Amino acid sequence: SQTIHQWPATLVQPVGSPLSLECTVEGTSNPNLYWYRQAAGRGLQLLFYSVGIGQISSEVPQNLSASRPQDRQFILSSKKLLLSDSGFYLCAWSSRSHHEQFFGPGTRLTVL
Amino acid sequence: AQKVTQAQTEISVVEKEDVTLDCVYETRDTTYYLFWYKQPPSGELVFLIRRNSFDEQNEISGRYSWNFQKSTSSFNFTITASQVVDSAVYFCALSEGGTGRRALTFGSGTRLQVQP
Question: Is A1 on the interface with B (CB under 8 A)?
Answer without folding.
Answer: no
